[in-house]
Amino acid sequence: MLKLIGIQKSFGNFTAVRNVDLTINDGEFFSILGPSGCGKTTLLRLLGGFERPSQGAIQLDDRRIDHLPPHQRQFNTVFQRYALFPHLSVWQNVAFGLQMKKTNPTELTARVEEALELVQMQEFGNRSITTLSGGQQQRVALARALINRPKVLLLDEPLSALDLKLRQQMKVELLALQRKLKQTFIFVTHDQEEALTISDRVAVMNNGIVEQVGTPQEIYEYPKTLFVAQFIGSINSIEGEVKAVTQDTILVSGLARRPFSIKPSRDGQRPLPLVEVGTKVKIMVRPEKLKVLKSPPGLEYNYIEGILKESLYHGPETRFLIEPKDKTNSCPMIQAVQTNSAVTARKPFASGDRVFTAWSPEDCILMGAEGPLPLPEPKTAEILSDELPIQNVVLN
Amino acid sequence: MEPHLKNSLSKSKTYWFAIPTIGWMIWFLVIPLIIVFIYSFLTKGIYGGIVYRSTLENYSRAFDWLYFGIFFQSVKLALFTAIFCLLIGYPMAYALATASQKLRPVLLTLLVVPFWTNFVVRTYALKVMFADQGPINSLALSLGLIDAPITLSNSYAMVWLGMVTNYLPYMVLPLYVTLEKFDFSLLEAGRDLGASGWNNFWKVLIPLTKHGIVTGSILVFTPALGEFLIPDLLGGAKTMLMGNLITEQFLKMRDWPFGSALSMVLMAVVLASLVVIIRLWMKESEASSSETMRDAA
Asked: Is the CB of B192 less than 8 angstroms away from the CB of A70?
């Protein structure tokens, strides 16, 4: 188990990483996600031993390792641009780590072959690095990092240099590799889709702070902060004011004549926050939770009336841009996404149509105007988000 | 726009741009070399000058044992100069290449400042600096580091000091160019894979910057082999080197044909050794890769 306790890293006056606490389990595919400059690469370099933390400790299986140089940690890194040695062949690149350990030739050969086979590059041993494609270089970099059998494999945006098709493919391969080896992978990326698809858990970082840690589903469905809600996927944000609070419903005014009602999520993972009447809030709804209708929905739904401005056809789905009838500066446009089932594919709506966009009270995320709202039992939420899905726990 | 541009500057026409350079090289390098080559087979006149009677005598004289000694001395000095320039220049180039963007132009300027002064003046300045009553000796005396001035002038050490000082920039600049392009994340990768500083240096940094090492060494070694002014000024013309020997043939002995023959021999030896060095280096890198492959099989 890898533990980061109160990690802080400053460069002069600039603090790149602030007070980060993380626990990464053995065999976990853990992603660190954030925009560029959020401190994710610095965090990875701290783990790799290329930087020393200004404060805090890193523990691997209860042993402190933050003072150790890279070659004394049982970590290996796949670098952003792979950093393969251009003067060595594929075979020599992969063998490098073992040669440094003075592994005997028989074992060395066997393990290099094994590592090359793992990434399906057996045929390429003789080849020079410069003759390889991006995807092939990526595989060699993986084999080179994995040959030392690291306790933790660090991956610094390894897919960012590849084109889209290859990125999709390598993503799946990377996940398959991790599942096969059952090693801990720590994957740094700015691509939310990558992080959501392949991770067991994701830490979302912004301005050097870890904003939220959780499974991809938790991060997407139950963002705890405004930043997480807005950084991951797209989200509609409607400003309003709390009008009434009952046992299981909060009523919020804004953008429509009928107040919006907010209920806890159906699975109970998102309870209603503690708010008082008069509190300024933001109602946040993912576009795919919205339905576009020609007439107002039933009373159990929240809805906004508006004019359809644009339908953006994406193939599998269509994105509708709707201008609310009572539009405000804070919410000039509502986005709704619907899959192109047979019905919508026939283009039932035209630009300029009067439409109603509706969603369930259970699908809203309520945030304060400035930040997260207090929750009734924060402990419950905490345990839920830190709990690991059963299938990912690997016993060593 | 682009196809039009491509047409007007198509490959077949761009070589015209090289004409001035080629013309210059033919007029001032190739033709003089041909003249020297022809002279080396002619005979010296009684009062200097050239007699147009062909002979091989100049070459048979050039292979005299006496000249072998001089040649050996020259190679030794040039080799030492190149090695010391490399030892001092590599860390210098490394510091330059890793310096901050602000500091780098300052350091580069400092490196080329010596070129702004005349070569002879620079060399004389060294002589003055290290003279018996010069600033270095006076300072050391007044500090009580030495009891009597150390006589450096007109010694082999002084020649060598002058050579290294003069040729250092020729080593540092190509090394800097190579190191500046070097991807320093490769050193991180090396450390990540368990390489110690020593291994990282020899297995990653040196092989990947060897191009700069070879270029720098050639740039220093080749002119150092024919150098005659520094040994003259700083060594008191005590040690005869190839450069001095050839200069004397032309200026004092007025034996142009023999001087030409010596020049041709020197040039042939330099050329041959360069070819051998480069070939060896290429083979070595090929051999090391095939060796590992044999291990694999």
From this structure: yes
ipTM value? 0.77
Residue B199: its chain A contacts at CB < 8 A? 100
pTM metric for this prediction: 0.78
The domain in which residue B181 lies consists of 65-281
CB of B192 within 8 Å of a chain A CB? The answer is yes
For chain A positions 26-55, those within 8 Å of chain B (CB to CB) are 48-50
Q: What is the CATH number of the domain that holds A36?
A: 3.40.50.300
CB contact under 8 A, A76 and B196: no
Burial of B63 (0-12, 13-18, 19+ CB in 10 A): exposed
The 3-state secondary structure of chain B, one letter per residue: CHHHHHHHCCHHHHHHHHHHHHHHHHHHHHHHHHHHHHHCCCEECECECEECCCCCHHHHHHCCHHHHHHHHHHHHHHHHHHHHHHHHHHHHHHHHHHCCCCHHHHHHHHHHHHHHCCHHHHHHHHHHHCCCCCHHHHHHHHCCCCCCCCCCCCCHHHHHHHHHHHHHHHHHHHHHHHHHHCCCHHHHHHHHCCCCHHHHHHHHHHHHHHHHHHHHHHHHHHHHHCCCHHHHHHHCCCCCCHHHHHHHHHHCCCCHHHHHHHHHHHHHHHHHHHHHHHHHHHHHHHHHHHHHHHHHC
Among partner residues B188, B289, B296, which is closest to A83 by beta-carbon distance? B188
Judge whether B211 is closer than 8 Å to chain A, CB to CB: no
Residue A389: inside a domain, yes or no? no
Counted domains in chain B: 1
A97 contacts B193? CB cut-off 8 A: yes
CATH of the domain at B111: 1.10.3720.10
Put simply, whether A316 touches B (Cβ < 8 Å) is no
The answer to whether residue A100 neighbours chain B at the CB level (below 8 Å) is: yes
pLDDT tens-place values along chain B, 297 residues long: 444 555 555 566 788 888 999 999 999 999 999 999 999 999 888 777 788 888 888 898 888 888 888 888 888 999 999 999 999 999 999 999 999 989 999 999 998 888 888 888 888 888 888 888 888 888 888 888 888 777 777 788 888 889 999 999 999 999 999 999 999 999 999 999 988 889 999 999 999 998 899 889 999 998 998 888 888 888 876 778 888 889 888 888 888 999 999 999 989 988 898 888 788 776 665 545 444 444 443
Cβ pairs A/B, distance under 8 A:
78
Distance from CA of B96 to the nearest CA of A (A): 22
| Residues 164-183, chain B, touching A (beta carbon < 8 A) | 183
Domain assignment of residue A31, yes or no: yes
Domain limits for position A142: 2-226
- Considering the domain architecture, whether residues A93 and A68 belong to the same structural domain is answered as yes
Residue A394 domain-assigned (yes or no): no
| Among the ranges given (A117-126, A262-271, A313-322, A384-393), the one the predictor scored with the smallest mean pLDDT | A384-393
Answer yes or no: is A22 within a domain.
yes
Residue A89: list chain B partners with CB under 8 A: 289, 292-293
Q: Where is the domain boundary, A226, A255, A277?
A: A226
* A75 touches B at CB < 8 Å: yes
Closest alpha carbon within chain B to A72: B194
Q: How far is B286 from chain A (nearest CA, A)?
A: 10
- A219/A244 same-domain check: no
A13 plus A37 within the same structural domain: yes
Query: Do B204 and A86 count as a contact with CB atoms less than 8 A apart?
Result: no
